Amino acid sequence: MAQNRTRKRRTMLYIPGNNPGMLQQGSVYGADSVLLDLEDAVALNQKDAARTLVRNIVKSINFYNCEVTVRLNHTDTPFGDADLEEIVPLQPDAVRFPKTESVEDLKKLIDRIEEIENKHNLPHDKMSIHAMIETAKGVRNVFEIAEYSKRVDAITIGGQDLTADMNIVKTKDNAGIDYARKQIVMAAKANRIDCIDTVYADVDDDEGLKEETLYIKKIGFTGKAVINPRQIDIVNNVFMPTEAEIRKAAKVYRGWIDAKRRNLGVFAIDGKMVDAPVMARAKYVLDMAEIDLSSFE
Ligand SMILES: CC(C)(COP(=O)(O)OP(=O)(O)OC[C@H]1O[C@@H](n2cnc3c(N)ncnc32)[C@H](O)[C@@H]1OP(=O)(O)O)[C@@H](O)C(=O)NCCC(=O)NCCSC(=O)C[C@@](O)(CC(=O)O)C(=O)O
Ligand SMILES: [Mg+2]
């Protein structure tokens, strides 16, 4: 779980929990994670049916390398506890907890999860928790939320709800949630966990999605939620290093191995200083590109 995880989460595909066709096909499109949704994609009169369907899908479908995450209803809603009772015994890779506002919210959630795990003789360190920040109060408390428990291995932002909670007009550049995005990134980075950006609602605007993904990558997000298979390649490609970046990183890494042999802490490549942080960035690029570092030794 959590800090030992090496799996990438560039794309997390939301799938409405009451749509059997989409649920069955969800893992074939190349998303790193599927997000089986019991919350806002499901109408109130469909909640029970969706929960049963998601339970059966998680039990019976092989998602292969795709991470399986279930978005629960909040524990303060009439559906939250029933979701936990059905989903926790299945131990999906993670549960996504919407509208997390405080550590009290998380404590209540984790205590209940662990109670159910104890009842079923399940470990407490397998299924992780993704805390969604979707209100101004959650943004204010995100640092405490991110460090509260090792089970929290990602912080995510829900831009639609946050915009509504702040009672602001949603613009294409999402200026109104920029502060929140950056605060969420900092809280995640301070705890060395993932931070996942909100969805891009216009599924026909490929250029807009690419532009937004380039921006959120630049400010530190490690992935983005998507709502349609057509969005997956666009986001995955933005999060993959370019060929030029890989070539440069490989050069730095090779130089670093050589420098270590010569007991040098700092050296230059093409006239530019290379020190430990430059090497760490190069290593991250090679890791994202899934290049085996032992091939450089
Ligand atoms: C948007 C649209 C209606 C477009 O429909 P369209 O019909 O135009 O789609 P097409 O492209 O024509 O579909 C072509 C083929 O792909 C299949 N297919 C489509 N979508 C698929 C999918 N998601 N999973 C698997 N399969 C899929 C489809 O079945 C078809 O299959 P086939 O018939 O076999 O060819 C549809 O995609 C959709 O419903 N998306 C999910 C919406 C959703 O979950 N919303 C809730 C999460 S956000 C939220 O809650 C806000 C947040 O909380 C969160 C945050 O930000 O994190 C906040 O506060 O901000
Ligand atoms: Mg939301």
Automatic annotation (TrEMBL):
The species this protein belongs to is Balneicella halophila
Q: What is this protein called?
A: Citrate lyase subunit beta/citryl-CoA lyase
Lineage, top-rank taxon, reads: Bacteria
Cofactors (names): Mg(2+)
Question: Is this entry keyworded Magnesium?
Answer: yes
- Which residues are noted in the entry as substrate-binding? 71, 134
User: What's an example Gene Ontology biological process for this entry?
Assistant: oxaloacetate metabolic process
Q: Which UniProt keywords apply?
A: Lyase, Magnesium, Metal-binding
Residues in HpcH/HpaI aldolase/citrate lyase domain copies: 10-229
Q: Which residues bind Mg(2+)?
A: 134, 161
Which lineage? Bacteria, Pseudomonadati, Bacteroidota, Bacteroidia, Bacteroidales
Annotated GO molecular function terms are: lyase activity; magnesium ion binding
* Alphabetical list of Gene3D superfamilies matching this protein: Phosphoenolpyruvate-binding domains
